Amino acid sequence: MKVLIVAEHDNSSLKACTLNTVAAGLKLHDQVDVLVAGSDCQQVVDQAAVIQGVDKVIVADNPANAHQLPEAIAPLVAHIGKDYSHILAPASTTGKNLMPRVAALLDVGQVSDIIDIKSSDTFVRPIYAGNAIATVLSEEAIKVITVRMTAFDEAAEGGNAEVVSSDFVVNQELSTFVGEDLSVSERPELTAATVVISGGRGMQNGENFVLLEKIADKLGAAIGASRAAVDAGFVPNDMQVGQTGKIVAPELYIAVGISGAIQHLAGMKESRVIVAINKDPDAPIFQVADYGLVADLFQALPELESKL
Amino acid sequence: MKILVPIKRVVDAYVKVRVKSDNSGIELTNTKMSINPFCEIAVEEAIRLKEQGKADEVIVVSIGTSASREQIRTALALGADRGILVETELEARPLSVAKILKVLVEKEGIDLVILGKQSIDSDNNQVGQMLAALTGFPQGTFACKVEVDNGSIVVTREIDGGEQTVSLKLPAVVTTDLRLNEPRYASLPNIMKAKKKPIDIVSPEEIGVVVESKIKTLRVEAPPQRTAGIIVASVDELIAKLKSEARVI
Lengths: 308, 249
Ligand SMILES: Cc1cc2nc3c(=O)[nH]c(=O)nc-3n(C[C@H](O)[C@H](O)[C@H](O)COP(=O)(O)OP(=O)(O)OC[C@H]3O[C@@H](n4cnc5c(N)ncnc54)[C@H](O)[C@@H]3O)c2cc1C
Hints:
The complex is a heterodimer. By secondary structure, chain A is α/β, with parallel strands linked by helices. Chain A contains 8 helices and 16 strands. In chain A, the strands form 3 sheets. Chain A has a 7-stranded parallel beta sheet, sandwiched between helices. In chain A, α3 (70-81) crosses α4 and α5 (209-219) runs parallel beside α8 (297-307). The longest helix of chain A has 13 residues, at 16-28. The mean pLDDT of chain A is 97. By secondary structure, chain B is an alpha/beta fold. Chain B is 29% helix and 31% strand. Chain B is built from 7 helices and 13 strands. Chain B has helices at 37-51, 69-78, 94-108, 127-135, 188-194, 204-207, 235-245, and strands spanning 2-7, 9-11, 33-35, 57-64, 82-87, 112-116, 139-149, 152-159, 162-169, 172-176, 199-202, 215-221, 230-232. Chain B has a 9-stranded mixed beta sheet with strand order 9-8-7-10-6-1-4-5-11, with helices on both faces. The longest helix of chain B has 15 residues, at 37-51. At the A-B interface, α3, α4, β5, β7 and β8 of A face α3, α4, β7, β8 and β9 of B. The structure holds flavin-adenine dinucleotide. Flavin-adenine dinucleotide sits between chains A (200-202, 226-229, 240-245, 257-259, 261, 263-264, 267, 278-280, 283, 296-298) and B (13, 37, 120, 178).
């Protein structure tokens, strides 16, 4: 058995989800290799090399990999990965974009978004927005897998991996990077925060999210949103929690003015403690909340903020 | 330009699904079925490109049982020109679906494939990317904006940190995110007209693809249920509980 982890990074820092993915890999085997594909990405290589359990870091540092477009990276991962029994990447938008392309190049099926590993060929994953949990067997020679980061702890530091480089490169003109519009926030990352406070349609507009921000400041929380709040333009799409947004599992999740549609629950019901603030006592969110407060959020939020 | 839109028949997004008592899958008898919401967005986008004069023909294809004809009709009523049903009783997994689509893409001379980023039943999020790999096309996944011009397509993608824009040479594969558009409702006259639009029925064998998979579902279970907790009477009680009982603040 040989396990390859595809690192997620922005050429300067390794993303935490890589650590969760390494941890998943270490459930399969006591050592894993990590592939860092990028451009000018030595810092990432250094960070990957000290993860405990990493045997080898394979570096493909080339300007052609600068934006990590799947048209360039998938053939690289397939080329390196063909010698492995398992290839794992985080089930982030980057991993979801890349890995099925890798799988098809290797002519194997993929197992998406696993939350548990039963054995080297048997995995557990949510289906139907988490309303059912499937145990699946993969008899593929190479198992291509994406990993739900909230389901695995982060691998620790303290390793000292060997670094090798690969000069395999795909210079392609099928796709070109045009630009990026990334949100900058001082707050913790939504998927990594220990406290998340989310607003829904009940917030009425984007300005009112200030009410959540004030509480988030006090709790060191990240701010999320329902799809209705994103669709209405209150907040940007990268704040969406749910089946098609981000999956979060913080210690504390506070849902404010969110009704609790199954697609929203899919993204937060693994949180340890759930609080719901909603003026409708029949809102389905109360069925999953540990603590429910039936109240008008415009009164409850300022009061909560002042008393924290 | 010819657009292919693959669509899937799935349990309606607002149905609360139940796991079968023998744990073999999801109870589908007497369950409301619909076109997968992401696929509907793909159909809408293709029709808009046709209305803008950028596409000549929109073909929808579904791989599934004969019941999927209903979803093909829905797409035709929305404005697609013709349908193809690749009829099979077997559950086609993403790699088989992508292999079937590849044959159709080549046979029909498709310039652009628009499909949903994931189906809300299996939540795999794979077919578009796999099809792109097999055809050698570039891919623009999780699209919230597309612009076609002169042999290329500019796709704005929803990514974890925000948005990314890429330019792809046609032919290409695009997968849709929820905010790409809001699908229209089919008008009655269009529903009537759709009944006359052709649907070709072919089998995977005729296409030359064996529907098979080395990935098998062993068991399906209901998730651990969260039970409702308590309703607190005031903000003070909430804070007290979070501090002393839950110990999260
Ligand atoms: C394919 C598909 C995928 C989807 N993916 C997602 C997803 O990833 N994430 C997601 O969130 N949704 C998703 N949805 C949408 C989902 O079905 C719901 O429509 C959405 O979650 C509703 O958002 P909401 O709870 O904010 O709005 P609503 O359902 O409108 O609820 C608003 C709530 O606010 C309360 N409220 C209003 N005013 C106040 C006030 N003053 N004080 C207190 N409470 C108040 C109301 O009582 C109500 O309960 C998806 C849907 C589909 C079909």
